[in-house]
Amino acid sequence: MLPDTRTLPGECGAPPAQAADSEVEHAGAGLLGKREAEVARLVADGLSNKQIGARLFLSERTVASHVRNILNKLGCNTRAQIAAWVASMR
To answer: Is 19 a member of any domain?
Structure first.
């Protein structure tokens, strides 16, 4: 029989680690790049791609690309799961 590899919502396939709020950029022991970690934190704050782009001086398309990369790296399917992952890192 195969092992159960399912994850609960918010787990995203990445093990949570303990980190302070200011250390979210270093979250996941290098799992996310610095800019991806910034975008993930802003996604967790509930900002839209357009709002994130305005805050970080990026195009909306670039933000969408970062969000897609974050979803892939964390094994997530939704922005809510990214937010849960960021919360678990705080």
So the answer is: no
Angle at CA 86, nearest 5°, toward 37 and 33? 20
Q: Does residue 51 fall inside a structural domain?
A: yes
Query: What is the tens place of the pLDDT at every residue in 45-55?
Result: 999 999 999 99
In single-letter form, the type of residue at position 72 comes to N
DSSP annotation of 32 reads S
Q: Is the pTM of this model over 0.85?
A: no
Asked if the structure places residue 30 within a domain, the reply is: yes
**CB-based contacts of 66: which residues, under 8 Å, 6+ apart?**
35, 36, 39, 58
* Number of neighbouring beta carbons within 10 Å of residue 1: 3
